[in-house]
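**Archive record**
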Amino acid sequence: MTTDKIKILDVEQGRARALEEAEKFAAYEGYAHKDALRVRLLVEETLAMVSTIADDFFADFWIDGTRSGLCSIHLNIRTEMDVTKKKELIDASKEKRNEAARGLTGKIRELLENNLYLPRSQAMAGDSSDLLLLGMIDMPIAPGAPVPMDYVDWSLENYRQGIDDVKEGKPEAQEAWDELEKSILANLADDVRVAIRGNSAELVVEKKFTRHLA
C-alpha cells in the first residue's frame, strides 16, 4: 500500500494528518498493535528531524509498504529560502542549534538544515560533522581525499557501522555509540537515508515488519 501524499507546510499542522495516514497504513497492512505503535513513533521521529526548519520550506509526506513487510516513510523537502538570510538565522541561534543537535535526531536535523541552506564549503562544518561523515555513502576513504560537496548521500546503517569500527579508544565515537543505543530512532528503524541535492532533500526511514494477515 502507498498512502495519500500529504503536503506539509508546517510540521505542527501536518503531524495530525501524517499520523492519520500512519494509522490507516498499519491497519491496511495488517500490523499487530505493537507494530502499529512503532509506525506511529517512526512518523513522529521523522517529522522531528525537520521540526526546526523554518520559513519557505514545504514537504511531501507518504508511507509505502511491500508484501515482504518493508515499511518506508518518505519526506521530500524543498526550500527557496535565501542562503544569506538562513545563515544569519543559524548564526544568531548557534547556541540553541547546538543544543538541538544533541542526539541522533538532532544531528540528522542539523545535517539537513546545514546542507539545504549553507554554502557547500560550510555545510559540513560543526562539532558533529567529522563523525557524521562516517555515514556518507560512496565517501572517499583515502587520507586527504576531497569530500564531495555537490550532494549528500547519508545512511544510518553506514553511520552505525562506521561508529562501531572506530569507537574503541576514541571517546567522541564511544559517546556517539552510546547515543545510538539510547536513540528511539536508531532502535526502531532499520535504516534512515538522507539524500540532499541543492535546495531539495529526500528523507526515507525504513523498518521491516512481520506481516500478520489472515
User: Anything to note?
Assistant: The two ends are 17 Å apart (CA to CA). The chain has ten helices and six strands. The longest helix spans residues 11-29.
